[in-house]
Amino acid sequence: MAFFRNTAVNLLNLHYGLFALVMNGAGVFICVYLLKAGVPMPGVLMAMAGILLARFFIRPAIVRFAVRFGLQRMLIAGTVLMSLQFPVIAFVHGANLALYLMILVAAIGDTVYWSCYHAYMAALGDHEHRGHQVSMREAIAAMAGIVSPILTGWLLITFGPLAAFGVASAINLTAMVPLFWTPNIAVAKQVPGAFRAALPGVLFFAADGWIGSGIVFVWQIALFVSLGGSFLNFGGAMAISALVGAVAGLFLGRHIDAGHGGRAVFFALGPLVAMILLRTVSVGHPAFAVAANALAYVGSCLYMPTLMTAVYNIAKRSPCPLRFHVATEGGWDMGGASGSLAAALLLWLGVPLSLTLLLPLVGVAAAFVMLRRYYALYGQVTRLEVEEIGGGQTAGH
Q1: Can you give the pTM of this predicted structure?
Q2: Which CATH code of 1.20.1250.20, 3.30.750.210, 2.40.50.100, 3.30.360.10 fits the domain covering 7-179+194-381?
């Protein structure tokens, strides 16, 4: 298994596994906890949109800090900043000051972390093993999702929100430890054409952000309501879905690296469409909702390697991976905020919650066209590109 020989990527995936314990635990409870704390459904989605819009305006500052400190240190800082949002959530009661503070703190942490994480992964990863490496990351995240949502639900019921979100914050802090043994990657002060080269990634992530707003934010609310507003039932449903999808992505990663990216697009987006349609008819029916949620991890473990293999490879060929991902994450912010606000508007107008779950199909159609075009151009020449760019070369210097 040659893709295991990259120690830096292995450490980065270990970091991500610990981080995923939090994101698949406390992270999936944010929307439903806000709903339980008295924030109305449209208000919850507007809060998510607020975080994304704030991220968009904060994001340009990341490059200046990364030039000074390097990607490794910025990722460590982002991990710490991500930990700060969770204790604040425990104090939200309706649209109070804590809600607005949470939006600001979450926006800062998310912006620093995700821009630097994706740039770091793109720079450290191996082009010829990209599908395997991303698939391994997604499988680790799925396995982390088996235990963490049940634990978070139990902590919320037994000890309350401060304990549940406090534990999440502590675990998130430990995720920075593996990063101490990864290399720091310098970021050039000026890189002509870097943002122009990011346009394909921006379009990919704008579509993905629109998809994510529906299959994550809106669906979490729909699932929670369908399961009677129970934290423990919600956590159990999330654990079942993680168990179902833990190994699905490993097959697809090998398929992509073998030069079959075009077919992988069908394998990835087909289940995603089926999942969206099943979710639409499952709202209000607990058993169907749990089944639809179980299909979610299969869809994610197939879709994410297909999307991120393309994005990371474009990033590695770009003049600067960090600037590339600052721009692409901005695309995700705009797509996610737009999708969240569209869903909030529909709910405010009285449209049934089930119908708002169809909104991601617009993003799926756009992603299908773009991914098919990418793999038609690059899916069969992976190893030739490796020779051209020198395999382990890192951009941004």
Answers
A1: 0.84
A2: 1.20.1250.20
